[in-house]
Glyoxalase/bleomycin resistance protein/dioxygenase (Paenibacillus mucilaginosus 3016), 131 residues
Amino acid sequence: MIDIQFIHHISLNVRKLEPAVAFYRDVLGLKELERPPFDFEGAWFAVGPAGQQLHLIVHEGEVLREGGMHSRDGHFALRVAGYHRTIEWLERCGAAYDARPRPRAGFPQIYVMDPDRNIIELNCDPAELES
């Protein structure tokens, strides 16, 4: 059996690097990491304190979504502290979002899309809504 320890990184395709970097750095607050000198454009970010990473890869192909935001589409999720503070921040940044404070999943969720229409779920502990 494979002994998986944790997710190391997630890679997402983006068409234009600078708007994507600005979204992940300035809106989501991720810290950009040094990236090896690959022969294609991209950026790496730290995700939380446990060493996980997000890798952005510039790709001109047709693999990116064209439609609207739907929670059943492929996405990745980040646990956040402060559900209402997160919504306030997204509003200050002018980022569109879909807030779901009491979904069937059992924990509050907020869905956002990056400039290339990749979906990110931001969720928090349900106890945060009670306090």
Q: What stands out?
A: The CA atoms of residues 8 and 52 lie 5 Å apart.
